[in-house]
């Protein structure tokens, strides 16, 4: 965590969601908001995300443990699991989470 900071934290597990976050980020910037934007991504989408030249920080989603092993569907794995572990993933003291 970066101390004494504020920023946006987007969960974008998949290219479709990365593209949606690009659109949202462009809107945020057009409104004059300069807060940093961090993106939670799958490792296979790292280069794709970097090539967008939009995000201040990329955080690679690296699930593990008993809760991950108990996830039985896509919603649990990529919807609930990241939210349960937000305290381990968020990069700022004050986060706007999307």
Which tags fit this structure?
four-stranded parallel sheet; 98 residues; globular; 4 strands; alpha/beta
Can you tell me about this structure?
The longest helix has 16 residues, at 15-30. It is built from 5 helices and 4 strands. The chain is α/β, with parallel strands linked by helices and 98 residues long. Strand 1, helix 1 and strand 2 form a beta-alpha-beta unit. The mean pLDDT is 91. A 4-stranded parallel β-sheet has the order 3-2-1-4. The protein is globular, with a radius of gyration of 14 Å.
Task: Give a short synopsis of this structure.
With 98 residues, the chain is of the alpha/beta class.
Order of helices and strands: EHEHEHHHE
- Show unreliable segments: none
- Distance between the terminal alpha carbons, to the nearest Å? 18 Å
Q: Could you give the count of β-strands? A: 4
Helix content: 40-55%
Tell me about the largest β-sheet. Answer: 4 strands, parallel
General form: globular
Structural class: alpha/beta
Radius of gyration: 14 Å
- Averaging pLDDT over every residue, what do you get? 91
Largest sheet, order of strands side by side?
3-2-1-4
Task: Describe the SSE topology.
Layout: E1 2-11, H1 15-30, E2 37-41, H2 46-50, E3 57-60, H3 66-70, H4 74-84, H5 86-89, E4 92-97
Parallel strand pairs: 1-2, 1-4, 2-3
